[in-house]
């Protein structure tokens, strides 16, 4: 039996983004009738008073915090002040409003970059705060770590039921395909599409091609999020222990090198040229593979494999990118 009633008001913060849009689709697919969303123009999530008013008026019972300032390695490295400032403000106002209006379950989303740069691979939830962070996204990571700590602190002090879910690198149709700010997969799809269009012989790939990344399709993440929110009371309670942060990894447990990723994109799009690596761009962390044994033990596993996910993403955006 699903924990969330079908007519429960569920607020998805960040419904326009890659993650939020997939979660809204999943909730609607499952027959949830009161999914609340607000555009950025309607509600500025950095404005704590406005957020509190919105919560008081709409009384969400469940909240997914998928709104964040996010970006790829270059954006994180270039605008660290924006990444720490905006994310702290957004999460503070939403978590505070959840507490003030007695929200039942909150799912706070972060990312795998919260774990130390040299964390054991795969990375279990228990390696949080055991070593220095990767410098290229330290500001973002610290904001997210503060969010996890805040969920935990509220749970301990006030008995709330806030859970922090850390997805691995995500991709899917509503991604940001902007070349400077995006993550690697949408960037590779865009560059490869452009190379085909131009009849170019090479696609430029940043860095050495040797770092490894784990990638999860956005619909799989959405399924996992709703699965967690719907866990029976006793199983959910086990994730909210006094002695460890309320933290759970969401990933596939498999990773590929950036070179393999670029080759897979080339195969799916039908690009016959070569890859040209640009070592002047940062590699970032060498590897960040999630240990997914906790979520697997709860009965969830991803279903969309990488090549299939890239195919689906490409089908959704080719009209726009192939031009
Ligand atoms: P990260 O996972 O936080 O490091 O962020 P990204 O997804 O932006 O980058 C992952 C890896 O892909 C890094 O090693 C990048 O250097 C590499 N990469 C290769 N080509 C690109 C590209 O065109 N854009 C981006 N963002 N990364 C690329």
Could you please describe the fold and organization of this structure?
The protein has eleven helices and twelve strands. Helix 1 (18-29) links the parallel strand 1 (10-13) and strand 2. The longest helix is centred in the first third of the chain and has 21 residues, at 80-100. With 323 residues, the chain is of the alpha/beta class. The strands form four sheets. It has a six-stranded parallel β-sheet, sandwiched between helices. The chain starts with 9 loop residues before the first strand and ends with a helix. The structure holds guanosine-5'-diphosphate. Guanosine-5'-diphosphate is lined by residues 72-73, 113, 137, 169, 182-184, 187, 205-207, 211, 213, 258, 281-284.
